[in-house]
Write a structure and sequence with these properties.
The complex is a heterotrimer of chains A (about 375), B (about 400) and C (about 300). The mean pLDDT of chain A is about 85. A six-stranded mixed beta sheet of chain A has the order 6-7-8-3-9-10, with helices on both faces. A five-stranded mixed β-barrel of chain A has the order 11-12-13-20-14. The radius of gyration of chain A is 24 Å and the shape is globular. Chain A is of the alpha+beta class. The relative contact order of chain A is 0.12. Chain B is extended, with a radius of gyration of 30 Å. The relative contact order of chain B is 0.11. Chain C has about 300 residues and is mainly alpha-helical. Chain C folds into two domains: about 45 residues, no CATH class; about 260 residues, Orthogonal Bundle (MetI-like fold). Chain C is built from 14 helices and no strands. The longest helix of chain C is centred in the N-terminal third of the chain and has 34 residues. The mean pLDDT of chain C is about 80. The chains are: A alpha+beta (about 375), B mainly alpha (about 400), C mainly alpha (about 300). At the A-B interface, strand 6, helix 2 and helix 4 of A face helix 7 and helix 8 of B. Chain A: GO terms for molecular function: ATP binding. Chain A: InterPro entries: AAA+_ATPase, ABC_SmlMolc_Importer, ABC_transporter-like_ATP-bd, ABC_transporter-like_CS, Mo/tungstate-bd_C_term_dom, P-loop_NTPase, Transp-assoc_OB_typ2. Chain A: Keywords: ATP-binding, Nucleotide-binding, Transport. Chain A: This is ABC transporter ATP-binding protein.
């Protein structure tokens, strides 16, 4: 354990009878880029406010560098928070904003300005110090907010969906930039987002949250490729969920009886199922393949409803027996035959499909 | 301009009527200030004069009241702005149920009739004074103190409403950000919230001062035997009146208009500077015009023109005209007398009576009194009764300067 | 007590100890010493006899209903038709003035919010506010100039031959009603304006598009939105009109008293503060009762006042 580790020790946060965070127990390592990913209202912002000191856990402890943070106010914690709306002070200039942490610590005017200019250089915005905040563009404000937080010289930077106000292109650009800044300054970043793209591209590790509960913690690969719950499988990335009953299991291979006939998948995390268990089988759209005939493993016949062209890929909507599926194919530069309205044969590799116990899906 | 919900012509016409209702009485009052007639009125027009301003300045009681009002006004601003701020901050922090309860308590002074507030204030502080055994010379029976207490009660609520409106637009994450960046709660308040509220502090100070200065209903009770500007004004209006009050209105309206124009120049300027349209706009892009529309310059120009007009007005001598009006009236009176004499003479001749002299002496008595007392002032034409109906006797012909 | 304690801590954590103490003290002082206790003291006072100072606190200083009984029975034990009548007349007149103000201010508020643009709108706002920076007494005085026996209106009316003897507008209370209507226009326009401004212009256009006539658009679309504003404005105008003192003193006819003038007389002319307090309590209760009743009828809450 380094001095910068953050430990959430069985933390629960309740507002009256409402449980915002339920028994969160995890360790965030010093220097890590750690994301909390979940839909809005899942408790991730509450968790962040608890780490930054704006609220206290109802149960459990928050430890930073091994020290219990109970009763330590937000201004005394080694954390700096980047707010969703950035919370730049509108009545101050850019430099005054960045130097604010130094101002309240009694640093002299000249030294403040010097430090502010250094930080502006670091975020590649030299010379904007005397501008007003509203004169900056969205991306520039973003960087100023980061510079201001870094002026505190915190051990941990907390970011609450800081990119949500930006347009798509800028958002993608800022992902890379945030990651670069994090690697340059070597701080622990705790990042809150509902955008799985952000979480997957930037994070060392991700905690997926739903309804106050942490469903899974793992690196982006594990989260995407080996989801442990139906919620994670359905929330992270595009996927198709097919409901069914277990008929048999041999090793990792599980056979389900589904409306599309018997289908095989892999039991994620080495789970054991009994025949008759209600399960989902999850298969990503890019793992579904069109076949010439209904023969072969895990093949079934369904109806093509419509096709959509997305540039890099083609999306095919399928539907039969009350099961709607999506299938993507890489755009090879040739226009395939229009399949809409015809019967198609589809199949998938059982090792690419996971079987998970029946529970709430994302967005359901 | 207005499609479909009332028609542009009707809307414009109604607005015109509405604003003539708002400004008509004020404009007429302003005009009466320059008529030499000793009743404030426009018809009949006698002479243009500026003497009512002199009469106004010479009114010691009013000037004394003005000093009291300014003192109380400043006191009210100093007390009720912080109280209103505290109330607004308290409300903005509370849970919905507690907030509704406290809001009801704090807003009621606005709804309670001012008369009731005045009475409850003097009764309460009087009882408190008795409770601690204070005598009549103590603060509990001091008109100025009681007026402060009474006015602060409801004027604080005005200030609170101003702050609440401003606080609604405050982003509370700014305070949180300041705390997170290491500021102590006190520093966050001083450096973030207070600067944000500063425009509201300005408008609250203005509003509370005006409310205090204008207040009559509460003050007339709490000031006890003393007087403020407004209570003096009211007793003057109630017990007889002359155009020096119109002159006062002219001064107040002038101050108001200057204030409104300077304020408008200021808001326009800061708005243009803020949204960056300054460089592009015709006015702010031109260096000369830019200087002219600067609030200070607007203020200087207005004050300059007013001073010039005041100087011109003070040099103006209405005595020739007034003498003329007086002569005309005399002549008309003489003529009436002559006609009457002729009539009486004719009657006498007809009756063949002898006592001509006595009846001539009696007949002009209907207007006789007016001539003697108000010689330097213009004289009422005998036909006009007092302009305010039966409420006043004829003793109010000359301007009162008590 | 616990709630107060948590709240104080919340203030302390957010704004600091000094600010928390200041807020606590200021609100406490205001609510208790300026608002609650004076009203209670007045209520207490209204149940006492008008005694010489020496007797206060003595054996004869007991509670009595005498001051209230006087309001109903007068001196002779019969029905005090004069005072009750004055209260009734005051209320009716205040309602009348309120209704007139609603009728005048609703169109202006609507025009200001949805028809006027740019310079015209700014001018209208300034034009609305500026007259109200002029002292209340002087505004009433202006109406006396207008309505006096030799005032503008009589002058013009007689000049063009509409009538040939001066009409006594003061005795007929026309001057008073006009003055009161004028005095509180601002308090009616801005609440309605605030409410109507929130209305989406598209809603009106959609309604027009569907073929609704302009009065139906107002009745069905605009008025429901304006209702809280009207209620807020009406409450303030009614309370202030019923509690007005300056305008009735200046513009009222010699024989027509306003209820506040009765209270004023008990205090300043008869030096009977106890009875004056009782009358003030009666005015307060009747006004609050009336307003609450109206709020219930029109289904609005006090929380909307002053917005």
């Amino acid at each position: 354990m380094t001095t910068k580790d953050i430990v959430l020790d069985h933390v629960s946060i309740r507002f009256g009878s409402y449980t915002a965070v339920d028994n969160a127990h995890l360790t965030i390592n010093g220097g890590e880029f750690f994301s909390f990913l979940g839909p809005s209202g899942c408790g991730k912002t509450t968790m962040l406010r608890c780490v930054s000191g704006f609220s206290e856990p109802t149960e459990g402890r928050v430890l930073i560098g091994g020290k219990d943070m109970k009763g330590v106010g937000p201004n005394k914690r080694p954390t700096a928070l980047i707010f969703q709306n950035l919370a730049l002070f509108p009545l101050m200039s850019v430099a005054e904003n960045i130097a604010f942490p130094l101002e309240v610590r009694g640093v002299g005017k000249k030294d403040r300005r010097k430090k502010a200019d250094e930080l502006l250089d670091m975020i590649a915005l030299p010379g904007v110090g005397d501008k007003k905040v509203h004169e900056l563009s969205g991306g520039q404000r973003q960087r100023v907010a980061i510079a201001r937080a870094l002026a505190v010289e915190p051990d941990i930077l907390l970011l609450d969906e800081p990119l949500s106000a930006l347009d798509l292109k800028l958002r993608h650009h800022m992902r890379t930039e945030l990651r670069t800044i994090q690697q340059r300054v070597g701080l622990t970043f705790i990042y809150i987002t509902h955008d799985q793209g952000e979480a997957l591209t930037m994070s060392d590790r991700i905690a997926v949250m739903n309804a106050g509960v942490i469903e899974q913690i793992g690196d982006p690969e594990a989260i995407y490729n080996r989801p442990k719950t139906a919620f994670v499988a359905s929330f992270v990335g595009e996927t198709n969920a097919i409901e069914g009953k277990v008929t048999a299991q041999t090793g990792e291979l599980v056979v389900l009886d589904t409306p599309l006939g018997p289908l095989k998948g892999t039991a994620a995390g080495g789970r054991k199922y009994k025949p008759g268990d209600n399960c989902y089988i999850f298969i990503r759209p890019e793992q579904l393949e069109l076949r010439d005939n209904p023969a072969g493993e895990n093949a079934f016949t369904t109806q093509a409803v419509k096709a959509e062209f997305e540039g890099n890929a083609r999306l095919l909507f399928l539907g039969a027996n009350g099961v709607d599926l999506r299938l993507t194919r890489i755009n090879t530069g040739e226009r395939p035959a229009d399949l809409a309205g015809t019967a198609v044969h589809v199949g998938f590799d059982p090792s690419k499909a996971f079987v998970l116990p029946h529970s709430a899906l994302a967005g359901a | 301009m207005n499609k479909g919900t009332g028609g542009g012509v009707i809307a414009a016409g109604f607005s015109l009527l509405f604003f003539s209702f708002l400004f008509g009485p004020l404009i007429i009052m302003v005009i009466t200030a320059f008529n030499s007639s000793s009743f404030p009125r426009i018809t009949p027009w006698e002479c243009f004069t500026t003497e009512w301003f002199a009469v106004l300045i010479g009114n010691d009681r009013l000037m004394n009241g003005l000093a009291n009002s300014l003192f109380i006004g400043v006191g009210v601003v100093l007390i009720s702005v912080p109280i209103g701020l505290a109330g607004a901050l308290a409300l903005s922090e509370m849970g919905p149920r507690l907030r509704a309860a406290l809001y009801t308590v704090l807003i009621t002074p606005i709804l309670i009739p001012g008369v009731v507030l005045g009475i409850s204030t003097i009764v309460f502080w009087g009882a408190l004074g008795r409770g601690v055994g204070a005598d009549y010379g103590s603060i509990f029976y001091d008109g100025m103190f009681l007026t402060l207490a009474g006015q602060v009660t409801f004027i604080s609520a005005y200030a609170m409403l101003v702050f609440l409106a401003r606080l609604q637009r405050f982003d509370p994450t700014l305070t949180e950000a300041a705390l997170d960046l290491g500021a102590s709660p006190g520093q966050a308040f001083r450096k973030i919230l207070l600067p944000f509220l500063s425009p509201a502090i300005g408008s609250a100070a203005f509003l509370t001062f005006l409310a205090s200065f204008e207040n009559y209903n509460t003050t007339v009770f709490t000031i006890l035997s003393g007087n403020t500007f407004t209570t003096t004004l009211a007793s003057k209006v109630r017990h007889g009146t002359d155009p020096s009050l119109s002159a006062l209105a002219v001064i107040i309206i002038a101050i108001t208009l200057v204030g409104a124009m300077v304020h408008e120049a200021h808001t326009r300027r800061s708005q243009a500077l803020r949204d960056g349209s300054a460089a592009r706009s015709k006015i702010y892009g031109n260096p000369v015009l830019r200087v002219i529309v600067h609030p200070l310059c607007v203020f200087a120009i207005l004050i300059g023109s007013i001073s010039f007009l005041t100087y011109q007005g003070s040099q103006y001598d209405a005595s020739v005209c007034k003498q003329q009006v007086l002569d005309e009236k005399r002549a008309r009176q003489e003529q009436l007398l002559e006609e009457q004499r002729q009539r009486i003479k004719a009657q006498k001749e007809a009756a063949g009576a002898t006592e001509t002299g006595t009846s001539v002496k009696k007949s002009p008595s209907a207007f006789g009194g007016a001539f003697g007392g108000a010689a330097p002032k213009p004289v009422e034409t005998p036909k006009s009764p007092s302009p305010f109906g039966n409420a006043f006797g004829s003793g109010t012909l000359a301007p009162k300067t008590d | 007590m616990l709630a107060l304690r948590t709240m104080f801590d919340a203030f302390k954590n957010k704004h600091g100890l000094g600010v928390a103490c200041f807020i606590g003290f200021a609100v406490f002082f205001w609510a208790l010493f300026l608002i609650a206790l004076p009203q209670i003291a007045m209520l207490d006072y209204s149940f006492r006899f008008n005694l010489p100072r020496a007797d206060i606190g003595g054996p004869s200083d007991v509670y009595t209903l005498e001051n209230y009984a006087y309001f109903f029975r007068g001196n002779d034990g019969g029905f005090n038709a004069l005072d009750v009548g004055i209260l009734f007349k005051t209320l009716v007149a205040a309602v009348f003035v309120t209704i007139i103000d609603i009728m005048i201010c609703y169109p202006i508020a609507y025009i200001l919010a949805h028809s006027a643009t740019g310079v015209a709108a700014r001018l209208m706002v300034i034009g609305l506010i500026v007259p109200f920076w002029v002292n209340e007494i002087l505004r009433a005085f202006a109406f006396r100039i207008l309505f006096g026996a030799t005032g503008m209106i009589n002058g013009i009316g007689m000049e063009i031959g509409l009538w040939d003897t001066p009409i006594d507008f003061i005795r007929a209370d026309i001057a008073l009603y006009s003055g009161l209507t004028y005095a509180y226009i601002l308090l009616m326009v801005f609440p309605i304006f605030n409410a109507v401004e929130a209305l989406d212009r598209n809603q009106i256009e959609a309604a027009r598009d569907m073929g609704a006539s302009w009065w139906r658009v107002h009745w069905r679309v605009v008025l429901p939105i304006a209702k809280p504003g009207i209620a807020s404005g009406a409450t303030m105008v009614f309370m202030l009109t019923a509690g007005a003192l300056a305008a009735p003193q200046i513009l009222g006819g010699p024989s027509n008293l306003w209820f506040t003038q009765l209270i004023y007389q008990w205090f300043n002319e008869s030096a009977n503060w106890q009875r004056g307090s009782a009358y003030a309590v009666i005015l307060l209760l009747v006004c609050i009762g009336f307003v609450t009743m109206m709020m219930r009828v029109f289904k609005v809450s006090i929380g909307e006042i002053g917005r």
